[in-house]
Every structure is written in C-alpha cells, then in structure tokens.
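Can't paste images in this forum, so I'm doing it all in text. The chain is below; anyone willing to post the predicted structure tokens underneath?
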Amino acid sequence: MEQNQNSSLFSLNLDAQNSYSLRSMASWSKVLGWVGMILGILFILSGILVQQAMSQYGGYRSYRSGGFSASTIGNYGLAGYVVLGLIFIVTSIFAINAGGKINAALRSNDQAALSSGFANVRNYFAFWAVLIIIMLLFVLLALLGSMG
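Text version of the structure:
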C-alpha cells in the first residue's frame, strides 16, 4: 500500500487551476525578488550615507560609547547595513530565479526546469528560516542577559 502512495506522488499532474496558481506564485516570486533587490541596494546605500555622516564627526567622542569615535561607530553601522543588504540581495536572487524557472517550465512543459524552480523556492525559504532561527536565538540571549 505504501508503494502505491509513493508511485502516485511522483505521477502528479498539473490541472488548469494548479497551473494558474503556480504561474501566479511565480509572478509574485519575481515581484518579491525585485522588491527585495531594491531594498538590499537601499540598505547598502543607507549604510554608506550613515558612515559618511558619522565620519564628519570623527574627531568627537560619543557619550557612553566606550571611547569609540563617531567614525568608528559609522564604520560598524556601514558593516551592519551591508550585511543586511547582502542578505536581501542573495534571497532576492533565489526568488527571481524561482519565478523565472517555474514560468519557463510551465510554458515549455519542462520537468527539469520546474524542479530547478522548486529548488530555488526551497533555498529561499531555507535561507530565511535559518536567519529567523538565528534572530530568535539572539532575542532569547538578549532577554536572558537583561534578566541577569
């Protein structure tokens, strides 16, 4: 009985409704990818602007900063913005590729392209899942640190 379930799993067919839903998902994936790409670029540009603004005050010491100059803090800010920008850009590439490959696969009825598109969707969600788990751990560590 289990073998029958496995064979039916790999012989799934796309009907008109599923094909429409998959096409729509691919289109929204590309929209999400391009918006994320723009957001990543804006993060990097914002980091550069913040770093330049902070370097103008490079000779002054900020209060309670442990003696770091404003330009040093600006450099740390730039690094943070660049990391966030790169995260958005990398995940956007996964989303754009997924949308393009799924659309191409549906047009040409190409199983390999559809599989590649689904792999990009998997990579997109896996990347964000790992990042969210890491952020959750940082929040938990911050809460534990504030209690102690």
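Residues 1-8 have pLDDT under 50 and may be disordered. Residues 97 and 120 are 7 Å apart (CA to CA).
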